[in-house]
Amino acid sequence: MREIAPKLLDWYDRHARQLPWRVPPGSGRADPYRVWLSEIMLQQTTVAAVKSYFERFTALWPTVEALAAADDERVMAEWAGLGYYARARNLLACARAVAAEGRFPETRAELQALPGIGPYTSAAISAIAYDQPETVVDGNVERVVSRLFAVETPLPAAKPELVSLAETLTPQQRPGDFAQAMMDLGATICTPRNPACAICPLIADCDARAAGIAEELPRKLKKAAKPQRQGIAWVAVNDSAVLLERRPPKGLLGGTLAFPSTGWDGSTAPPPLNAEWRSLGSVTHVFTHFSLDLDVQITRSEDAPSRGAWHPLSEFAAAELPGLMRKVWQRVESEIG
Questions:
Q1: Is 228-336 in CATH node 3.90.79.10?
Q2: Beta strand pairing status for 261-262 and 257-258?
Q3: Burial 205-243 (b: 16+ CB within 10 A, else e)
Q4: CA-to-CA distance for 44 and 22, rounded, in angstroms?
Q5: pLDDT, position 13
Q6: To bridge 305 with a disulfide, which of 40, 175, 209, 272 should be the other Cys (CB 3.0-4.6 Å)?
Q7: Domain ranges of the chain
Q8: What mean pLDDT do residues 297-323 have?
Q9: Cβ–Cβ < 8 Å for 299, 277
Q10: Start-to-end CA span in the chain (Å)
Q11: 228-336 shares the fold of 5-216
Q12: Are 185 and 147 in contact (CB under 8 A)?
């Protein structure tokens, strides 16, 4: 077993990143609500992008009970820009389950039984909020471990081996701080490109550094090209209103307000108004599993639509739309003034 915890924790005590959901190193357990909220937000999103969202959420809903009582539409609107709206729906479902129980559970197994909490998030909450000796492995930790042990198996095939190796490093004392120290090391020193090996506290323990291959690891299989999809977005406006619809609760952009659209998500439908539509060209958006070209069509009308409803422009906030629909609105904004 490789003993790196004392060196890494000493480094963390001096160089820990200051993040709004953290407590200072060695100062005790973090609030499980804040740990959980930050981990859900950080899934496939950067720390820099999450900070403002986290601070706004915790100002609006400072406790899990407050979030559990929140209006669904308000939460979805505040989530806009973080993507994966299924996470926002699970966020509310989890908050309500925890509020009903009266507290967050402490063990990984109990946490994982909650909506939207998987193996990684349950380990993170258990370690960081409750100081349980759980191993937390995100992308940063995968990189650190792959270099420490010179694991040359490409990702994603290497994941089980990296988790197993990471488990051998997790200490019984201060496992929460250790988990965050591993993340910080990967984020600030053991970076994907140009790792700062000369100032790394684990330089003497790193097999990849000794072999001269640190920057080559972790190896990754070449990703297949994303399929391309096409669709149409219909934007209907008049002097006082814009046409919007609430998307189905499940599926892409589920539960969000959006412009009526078709094609790109597997749906087929005629335009929402029997009107003369004019194309403004397309917008491009990249989802996890495909790329999208969405033809933006506009019309002016006051007729009753076959789908969606007229929303007053005075109450319309483009910032509350999901990213794809914000791109659509940007395309038409200059047309309506």
A1: yes
A2: unpaired
A3: bbbbbeeeebeebbeeeeeeeeeebebbbbbbbeeebbb
A4: 19
A5: 96
A6: 272
A7: 5-216, 228-336
A8: 90
A9: yes
A10: 66
A11: no
A12: no
Residue 315 has pLDDT above 90, yes or no: no
C-alpha pair distances (Å), 75 with each of 3, 93, 142:
44, 12, 32
Q: Is 106 a catalytic residue?
A: no
C-alpha Rg value of the chain to the nearest Å: 23
The span from the CA of 185 to the CA of 195, in Å, is 10
The CATH code belonging to domain 5-216 is 1.10.340.30
Show the 3-state SS of 246-304.
ECCCCCCCCCCEECCEECCCCCCCCCCCCCCCEEEEEEEEECCCCEEEEEEEEEECCCC
- Asked if residues 65 and 102 have their Cβ atoms less than 8 Å apart, the reply is no
Q: Render the burial of 287-313: b for 16+ CB within 10 Å, e for the rest.
A: beeeebebbbbbbebeeebeebebeee
Taking the model in full, what pTM does it have? 0.77
User: What are the pLDDT digits (tens) for 117-148?
Assistant: 999 999 999 999 999 999 999 999 999 999 99
Position 337 pLDDT exceeds 70? no
248, 308 contact by CB (below 8 A): no
Catalytic residue among 3, 39, 152, 320: 39
Rounded to an integer, what distance in angstroms lies between the CA atom of residue 330 and that of residue 296? 10
